[in-house]
Design goal:
globular; mainly alpha; 206 residues
Length: 206
């Protein structure tokens, strides 16, 4: 029953439509029907033309991840399998929102909040991979995101567990399993980047 409780709580937190609410309040627009249709910070900024709204959406999505991770951490009581459920399902809730016919964001900010509250090394690893992808390979956000989602887990598994122990915020004893959860979440997020990557490559969906 506890695993179901964590799953439901995390998923529901993930489905909180931060960008939809914020853009609707401040700009009277439906984020799902504007711009790229992606309910994320970048599209919120582009649709409204206001950096403050994009920043507000970013913070709200980060807080969703932090909240879900913290609640899962408390309920799991150092049971890494239960914690993994919470970490994964909040991102699924954000990316595949049942209240909006399965539509959702790409999950980057929510995942950053989720893993950042446990250990900032996860976010640092992703950022290093992103910067390398953007400045070394090609200056395109979607391509850099994809590279970071693939490179982040590699960097995480290459980083000694001792460094994770030093930098942890919330103590999780089974760091290796936590790294696996991070990899799964990166894959889930990567699935949401397939469409923009296809568009960049000029591949039209049927």
């Amino acid at each position: 029953m506890l695993i179901l409780l964590i799953l439901v709580i995390s998923y529901l937190i993930g489905t909180i439509p931060s960008s939809f609410i914020i853009v609707k309040i401040f700009d009277k627009k439906n984020i799902f029907e504007s711009g790229t249709g992606n309910p994320g910070a970048m599209n919120s900024y582009e649709v409204t033309g206001r950096k403050s709204i994009g920043f507000l959406v970013l913070i709200a999505d980060l807080l969703k991840g932090i909240l879900a991770a913290y609640i899962s951490f408390l309920l799991a009581k150092n049971d890494i399998k239960l914690l993994m459920v919470g970490l994964i399902w909040v991102v699924i809730g954000h990316n595949y929102n049942i209240f909006f016919s399965g539509k959702g964001g790409r999950g980057l900010a929510t995942a950053a909040g989720t893993f950042g509250i446990l250990n900032p090394m996860f976010v640092v690893s992703w950022l290093i991979s992103w910067l390398l992808g953007y400045f070394v390979i090609q200056k395109n956000v979607h391509i850099a995101n994809a590279i970071a989602l693939l490179g982040g887990p590699i960097l995480v598994f290459s980083t000694p567990s001792e460094l994770f122990q030093i930098t942890e915020i919330l103590h999780v004893s089974q760091i290796f399993t936590l790294k696996i959860a991070y990899t799964i979440v990166c894959f889930i997020i990567l699935l949401r980047h397939i469409k923009p990557l296809k568009e960049l490559a000029g591949i039209k969906e049927k």
